[in-house]
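About this split. The held-out portion is used to measure sequence recovery: a designer receives only the structure tokens and must propose an amino acid at every position. Recovery is the fraction of positions where the proposal matches the reference. Here is one held-out target exactly as it appears in the evaluation file.
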């Protein structure tokens, strides 16, 4: 005799209400506490769907939280990095600083060359072949510089009360251009030009060398005493002789030739 077919619960006319949040995912088959569901029982499909949906939402929340946390870290990291000093590679090169040159100062004044006082003993002018001894001269009764003795054509005189050749100031050396008998020691003095050199041997054994600055001719009645005889700030020499036309009635030349020179 065949077994009767199994009976099933009547099929509901309406779908059952969804389980509440407190319903077990295994609705209708919840095990008692401490009892696991039997292996033959499977959770309904709708419960599995809800469980999967819940897990997907939870995973999404985890990803979102991680993203927000990472963004917060990144933001805080940016702030934190901004607190650190920049590295050498990050520092822009400093703009070149303008260097203020030191103030210009005038170089100290060069001391003019000079020699101590000493009588001259001999005059040497290589260009015009002069090699002559000295004799001291003074101022005559008319207030003019004396002339060297006319009987010696190879003799020069110097104003002994003034500066000696090489000493600071103006030293005056005079000589004849000629005499009644012949040419004299300064017959060729007019040949000296700027840059020519001559020498004076002195009693102290030193030799003073001079370079010509200029050679000029002055009328005797307009002779520039201040320019020729005045003291100077360096050691200078004036070589003086007669020049121009000889005045037979006055028995003298009408002009003087003056050579200006300084110690070198």
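Reference sequence for scoring:
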């Amino acid at each position: 005799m065949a077994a009767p077919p199994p009976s099933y619960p009547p099929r509901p006319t309406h779908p059952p209400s969804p389980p509440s949040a407190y319903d077990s995912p295994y609705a209708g088959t919840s095990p008692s506490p401490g009892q696991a569901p039997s292996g033959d029982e499977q959770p309904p499909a709708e419960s599995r769907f809800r469980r999967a949906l819940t897990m997907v939402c939870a995973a999404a929340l985890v990803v979102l939280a991680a993203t927000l946390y990472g963004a917060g870290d990144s933001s805080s990291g940016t702030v934190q990095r901004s607190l650190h000093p920049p590295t050498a590679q990050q520092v822009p090169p400093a703009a070149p600083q303008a260097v203020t040159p030191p103030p210009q100062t005038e170089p100290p004044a060069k001391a003019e060359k000079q020699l101590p006082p000493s009588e001259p003993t001999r005059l040497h002018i290589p260009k015009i072949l002069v090699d002559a001894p000295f004799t001291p001269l003074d101022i005559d009764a008319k207030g003019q510089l004396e002339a060297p003795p006319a009987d010696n054509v190879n003799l020069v005189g110097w104003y002994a009360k003034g500066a000696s050749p090489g000493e600071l100031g103006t030293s005056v050396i005079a000589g004849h251009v000629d005499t009644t008998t012949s040419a004299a020691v300064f017959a060729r003095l007019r040949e000296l030009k700027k840059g020519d050199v001559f020498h004076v041997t002195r009693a102290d054994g030193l030799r003073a060398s001079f370079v010509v600055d200029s050679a000029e001719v002055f009328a005797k009645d307009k002779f520039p005493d201040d320019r020729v005889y005045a003291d100077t700030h360096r050691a200078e020499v004036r070589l003086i002789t007669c020049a121009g036309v000889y005045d037979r009635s006055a028995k003298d030349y009408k002009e003087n030739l003056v050579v200006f020179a300084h110690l070198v």
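Annotator remark: Helices lie at 45-83, 225-229.
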